[in-house]
Design brief:
The protein has 170 residues and is an alpha/beta fold. The protein has a single domain, classed as Rossmann fold (3-Layer(aba) Sandwich). It is built from five helices and nine strands. Strands 4-3-7-8-9 form a five-stranded parallel β-sheet, sandwiched between helices. The chain has a two-stranded antiparallel ribbon with strand order 1-2. The longest helix has 17 residues, at 30-46. The chain is globular and about 40 Å long. It starts with 7 loop residues before the first strand and ends with a strand. Bound molecules: adenosine monophosphate. Residues 18-21, 58, 118-127, 150, 155 line the site of adenosine monophosphate (AMP).
């Protein structure tokens, strides 16, 4: 199956100069979604994951079915103010301005093997913050899997000490 056929590139969204990768046609297609989840699940199984972690919000869409396929749990990394119990928070730079992400302090057990799943690797800021949150929580990041990697933005360099796997590279 050619997954790229299900990803639409939208020029100048949400602002001028950004080539937005729209994955909604892929997740709206049963076969394409199942195929993509299977590839991400195969990778996570190879890494012997105990837990899948996914960042807000497309990491939830891709990460939860991967966890289900492996019969393991899923932990969300959310925008601040959404998680009700004690959290760790990491602030990071976006193209314009700052963003932050939080995790419940006790959602990961010390030493658990974590695979992080997200839709897309761009500059790597989101995933770097997610890695820090997993490690603060005592988790061991054994792999990071993306549906899409935008190679020109060199996000992979920022997380070079971790195994990274992308299904589609642009
Ligand atoms: P970054 O922190 O720069 O790696 O960007 C991470 C998140 O921003 C990704 O998980 C995407 O959800 C979103 N994102 C960044 N660039 C794009 C793009 N060109 N198309 C679609 N989503 C993007």
């Amino acid at each position: 199956m050619e997954l790229k056929d299900y990803v639409k590139t939208i020029p100048d969204f949400p602002k001028e100069g950004i080539q937005f990768k729209d994955i909604t046609p892929l997740i709206a297609d049963g076969q394409a979604l199942r195929y993509a989840v299977k590839q991400l699940a195969d990778y996570s199984r190879e890494k012997d994951a105990d837990l899948i972690v996914g960042p807000d919000a497309r990491g939830f869409i891709m990460g939860t079915p991967v966890a289900t396929a492996l019969n393991i749990g899923f932990v969300p990394v959310r925008k601040p103010g959404k998680l009700p119990r004690n959290t760790y928070t990491e602030t990071f730079m976006l193209e314009y301005g700052e963003a932050a992400l939080s995790i419940h302090k006790d959602d990961i057990k010390t030493g658990q093997r974590v695979v992080i799943v997200d839709d897309l690797l761009a500059t790597g800021g989101t995933i770097e913050a997610t890695i820090k949150l997993v490690e603060k929580s005592g988790g061991n990041v054994v792999g990071i899997a993306f549906l899409i990697e935008l190679a020109a933005l060199k996000g992979r360099h920022r997380i070079h000490q971790y195994p990274v796997h992308s299904l589609l590279v642009y």
